[in-house]
Amino acid sequence: METKTIKTENLTKVYNGNKAVDGLNLEIAEDDVFGFLGPNGAGKSTTILMLVGMIEPTEGKCIINDIEVARNPLKVKEIIGYLPEDVGFYGDMTAEQNLDYFARFYAMDASERKKRIEELLELVQLASVSQKVGGYSRGMTQRLGLAKALLNDPEVLFLDEPTANLDPEGVFQYRELIKQLSDEGKTIFVSSHILSEVSKVCNTIGIISKGTLIARGTLEELKSELGRVGAENLRIIVETIEPIPEITHRDIVNAEYSETKRKAIIEAKSDLRDYISSKLFEKGVKIKEMRMEEPTLEDVFLSVYRR
Ligand code: ADP
Ligand code: MG
Fold this sequence. Notes:
By secondary structure, the protein is α/β, with parallel strands linked by helices. The protein has helices at 44-51, 73-79, 95-103, 110-123, 138-149, 168-183, 195-201, 219-229, 273-282, 297-306; strands at residues 4-15, 18-29, 33-37, 59-64, 67-68, 80-83, 156-160, 187-192, 204-209, 212-218, 234-240, 252-257, 263-268, 287-293.
């Protein structure tokens, strides 16, 4: 009976007496795009390495399509694709040559390989690039990494921080690719330390901190939960030349003023920058600086912890 695509049971990894992953229980449904969110050092990469069978758990297990990973690593490799945090290619070869090199690890003959590689280079928009991989941008390398992970047309795809260090255009292209692959019916497990990243492509999210899952749910569920505890609020920071008068608005949930009243941190449910500028203008208060901060991952964690 195949009900869940990806499952971990009490998954634990101990390094030098420290639990990098601590009793993790995950269940990810078939066709889901799952966002594995957590700050640096939380245990995301270690979890993924155990899921793809590259390292063995100290305790517990990983199951993919009813196959226990550590017991059947080769069988699992046939149905999964994996993009590591730092994918490496041969810099003095083209994309096609690199992919052909890796495709030889799968049972595909030369003509099959050629066809598959052409399709994949088309998909990741590298088909017309003749340049050697050594000269690629970070975004191009990450897209080639995705092509590599897709060589065996896997059912389940693991992507470890695929958009870290990409420029906004690169992030956008990557997101589109993930959506496309999801539409084709692949189950996708993608890790990130950036909330806005996972919230744009994932249907369900798990938040990991210090090796433990601290929250889990659909994006909607987590959003309403975060909304309830106020973690979704924006922070508008205003610095002025003259002291700031008190600003009121129904979307303002909290405001803190500095002693000199020349700086205020306003927590609000919506972007009130225009409103605040016009209020200050009316009162003749000149603005030195105004900026808005969206909730950070830390805010989300704090709200989850406080609960
Ligand atoms: P993340 O991917 O979320 O940033 P990691 O899974 O890489 O986190 O790391 C989790 C914890 O395990 C960190 O404290 C890290 O230092 C430690 N760790 C990871 N890999 C090793 C290793 N090979 N040897 C010792 N400690 C490790
Ligand atoms: Mg990592």
